[in-house]
Amino acid sequence: MRLTTLSGRRAPQGPIKLMHRVYKYVLPEVEAELGKLRELAERIPDDELRTQALNSMEDKKFHCQGGGVYAAANLEYRHVLIPLIVALQTISDYLDNLCDRSTSLDPEDFRLLHQSMLDAVNPHARLRNYYELRSESDDGGYLHHLVKTCQTCVAQLPSYGSVQKHVEELVALYGDLQVYKHIRKDQRESHLLAWWEKHSSRYPNLKWNEFAAATGSTLGMFMLFLAASETKLSAKDAETIRHIYFPHVCGLHILLDYLIDQEEDLIGGDLNFCNYYENKNLLVERIGTIVIRAREDVKSLPASRFHRLIIEGLLALYLTDPKVRLQAEVREVSKRLMKNSPLTRLFFMVNSNWIRRQQV
Predict the structure, then answer these.
(1) How much is the average pLDDT of 258-277?
(2) Rounded to an integer, what distance in angstroms lies between the CA atom of residue 186 and that of residue 221?
(3) Greatest CA span in the chain, whole angstroms?
(4) CA dihedral over 261, 266, 271, 275, signed as positive or negative
(5) Is the peptide bond before 342 cis (omega within 30 degrees of 0)?
(6) d(Cα 257, Cα 143) in Å, to the nearest integer?
(7) From CA 127, how far away is CA 145, in angstroms rounded?
(8) Which of 41, 62, 58 has its CA nearest to residue 218?
(9) pTM of this prediction?
(10) Which of 223, 235, 315, 342 is the most buried (most CB within 10 A)?
């Protein structure tokens, strides 16, 4: 699985150079983009939509910061990649808030809301009334602004034509997950299992909850955006990149997210894919296996050390989250996953904690 049209020559290969770029370019520019979006969100006329838009940026800012790391691999295109990643991730986080806190349980409402993400990654898609099936609708053009920002940015990526269908596939899977996980509680699991049956033959080494978790990640989309910032990326290489990132890198990302959210989801009655393992030992074993597979997968990429840094950074970011300390079982699982941590991961642990302290 040799890639011939992706050079990766601009990507940082070591943690110090990566974090230098993160501190100097990524974090300030992500914050600047979020600042512009906050100003728009503060002017949303509808109280509920305004609250959820602002909360999504306040509570989930680290999603944009983490996604923005991909722009560190091609600084020449960060003026496109950072606004694109921030806008698409903000749509994702905003809609997640709307669906989580929604008085609606209408799957068609959830699907129409997430049509905005599909339209965002298609530079030629027409805008729609994404709120048509719900009572709250006056956002002052906020969601349309996010969609148009993404469309403008993807149109500026030299090889977007090669990756577009793969980005759309991942966005469609993401939308499916958001629909099925937010419908009536007594229907969620049966719909998710029926959905898994349609895809299971392609992923024989995954369990259904691991596939579902992988579809909830935006990292595969961001990697494809980064790849499309190269000139003359071939369609074959675009497809290879999609399979390198999905399902294992993507699955690891969201399983770690669910791991630290177990208590929060239990209180909120939200579905959590880490709860579908028979016991704690199996949970640790499966996440450990996915870590190993993710590391093996990214070896095929040019600048593979950059992508290995992404994996170690994910482990460091999530397993040092303050939520871990408050959950005895999660704390125990985290200790086992961090056992024999490589120095790179320890380096990221220090940096993750430092970044968190700056945001308090």
Answers:
(1) 88
(2) 31
(3) 52
(4) positive
(5) no
(6) 25
(7) 10
(8) 62
(9) 0.94
(10) 223
